[in-house]
Amino acid sequence: MIPDKSGNNTQGSAQAAEKMGSFNLFDPAHFVQRVIRNWYWFVILGFIGYCISYVYSKYYAQRIYSSSLSLSISSNTASYFTPNQSINFIWGQGGNQDGVYLKKILLSRSHNEFLVKKLNLITNYTTKGLIKTTYLDQEDSPVFLEIDKSHLQQVNYPISIIPKGKNQYEIILPEEGQSRNLYNYNTESVESVSSYARPKNRILNLNEWYESPNLKFKLISNPNPSNLGLDNIIVTLVPVNQAVNSIIGSLYVDFDKELSSIMIITKTGYNLNNTVSFLNNSVQELIKKRLLDQNMVDKNTVEYLNENLSLIRKKLDSSGAVLNNLKINNRLFDMENIDSKTLGKLTDLETQKAELLTKINSLNDIRNSVGTNSIEKIISLNVAGIEDGSFTASVSELKQLYAKRREMAQIYTPNSEPMREINRLINEAKYTSQDGLRKYFQGYNNKLSDLDAQIGKIDKELVTLPEKQRIFLDAQRGYNIIENTYNTLLTEQAKSQMRVATNQSNLNIIDNAKNLGQGPIAPDVNATQMQIMGGLLLIPLVFLLIGELLDNKIRNLKELLTATKIPLLGVIGHNSYDNNLTVLEEPKSSISEAFRAVRANLRFLFDEEQKSKVILVTSSISGEGKTYVSINIASVLGLSGKKSVLLGMDLRKPKIFGDFKINNKNGISNYLTGQAELEEIINHTSIPGLDVITSGPIPPNPSELLMSDNNMKFIERLKEIYEYVIIDSPPVGLVADSFELIKKADTTIYVIRHEYTEKHMLRMITEKYFNKEVSNLGLVYNDFVVKQGYGYGYGYGYGYGYGYGYGYFDEDKNYKEPTITKIRNKLKMFFNKK
């Protein structure tokens, strides 16, 4: 990049002016380079993550298994307690209502509590290895633990059983953790006891009771033990409610997408055999309960019909005897004076009335069963001549509410809010059920009134009959009504008995749950491994990202030039030598060559015809290397045969005298205050063409001295003596002195230190340069170190010390890399080869 001699390098548009000195908040390319440079952190943390995930998955992660059972639900039978396919009263939806009902049973507390007690699922069996605990099925254990439910037991208290041979087992209890709050399995409640000492460990024989204040159990041999060869068995008792909730939480019921009458029941757990056993037992119990429910109503109906038939039979016999007596005594065997058509109509009407009265009586019995909490004794609605899915569903709901109330009564007091709420729901269900019957009662009563009216009309026609014939007719009509009622009940009895004899469960198992060696469904080891490794890899990435966002240092040469548009005079590498006299003491080093490149580029900022030139070196803040740059710029000018003088005008922090080993007793501050002559403050160096004037003692008023007319005249006087006057000035970002000195300078060198100068500090000098308040300005990029992955791609020819690596120049052979840097470079070379 060749500096523009005019000093207004490619500036013009207002939009460009707004962007001058503005750096991007985030540089993606630099961030990627930073990530690449720190690759070893990702390798280390990735390896650590892999090790952690491996140990976790192998020794700590509990595998979760799943087994499934498929069940077919046919619609050939239904009762009040098994709603049919057409019911949409309770659940508010069409489709497989019977399946929805069964799903609720499978997930109900009552069903699963029954299984917990039947299968003894209040005991959890595990075994512990060196690190990991493995869950067992009951059948995996060589012994079963049987508790005395009349004795209080401590739950969630691990009991270790160690086989000792010869049917003996050592019982080991925890050193701590015995509780005063013990569980009563009969009442399913917690009771408090007095304090007691820790129960002792002991050797226990099979079928021998172990008794302590908080435990009472014995060990029973498993007739079909597994061949696992367990070193220990750990049994933990759990409350019934805890066991039930755990099971319900692990059950999933769904329906086949193509055929909704097929139910898929799935259970998850830490042991596959345990899930298989539970599913098969659960469905078998459901089938038994289903068949019992289906038979219950028909059996109740048969019993009801038997009772009524017995009563009707007596009435029929009595009525028949009366009719026979009339025939014998009055010698009447037919009704000759009555029109046969009228008599047939009368007989038909009375037959209808008899059937209707039978239905009304049956309906009354059904209503009484619902109203008096005798649902278990309810009879079939078919006896009342009704097919009503809504009523059937409401009775099913009522039964479930009664079962729920029985469960809640064990926990809540009668006047508690939950009990009041369940009673309210029961009353609502009762009203709904009875309301469904009212319309049938109304319809039957209306029909009965109509039949009575028709019969009444015929009775009026028969008033003219002789008295004997009327008596005989009334007796015959009564007999016919009772006979018709009897025949109707016989028909319903036959139907109910047939249903009882042929009833089968409408549930059929398609596929039982089986242990087919299914692998675990969780945890996802690969996903867990990726999450752990990803989480650890994210740590350095986040730190690097935060560092990138908070990093306000100049680290990117390309970004610097793009943002400032100020000419670049050269790039100076990192000074690894003991002092600032690099050009004098190491003239053949790469850094010395870089300063010569800066000297060559300075001519583009000068007026070639100008006899004497003033070069001012400044920076944003202290520590950026302006003194180092000014010393070496002066050195290369002096070595080139140019008569030069170096001025230490940073009166607040004088430095130059130390590098040249000059006494700072007399300097610029003495001269400007009239305490010394010019000849007294000029110091000659080992370079014939280079003199140095130090700052002198620190004055109380450095700004006034630097901006005084005496100082301006001092510089003009030096210009008459020297070809180059190099001024080491104060930082422009801290004091205003340098801006006054810049006005007297022919060229200003602005020093920026790599990874030290902050971006915002360049805003001011960039604006002044863009507004032409400062002309003939050039940048020197100092202390630049090549880092693998930066890839700036600059080939300006200025920075021999940053593009070729150490060793290109003779003096650089003595450079010693730190041990850590050597190791890192070796690794980089190795992986680059790969």
Automatic annotation (TrEMBL):
InterPro entries: AAA_dom (IPR025669), Bact_polysacc_biosynth/exp (IPR050445), P-loop_NTPase (IPR027417), Wzc-like_C (IPR005702)
EC class of the enzyme, as a word: transferase
AAA domain residues: 613-756
Transmembrane segments: 39-57
Keyword Repressor tagged: no
Keywords linked to the UniProt accession: ATP-binding, Kinase, Membrane, Nucleotide-binding, Transferase, Transmembrane, Transmembrane helix, Tyrosine-protein kinase
Pfam families attached to this UniProt entry: AAA_31
Catalysed reactions, as listed in the record: L-tyrosyl-[protein] + ATP = O-phospho-L-tyrosyl-[protein] + ADP + H(+)
Entry EC no(s): 2.7.10.2
Membership in a protein family: Belongs to the CpsD/CapB family.
Protein name stated in the entry: non-specific protein-tyrosine kinase
Organism: Epilithonimonas pallida
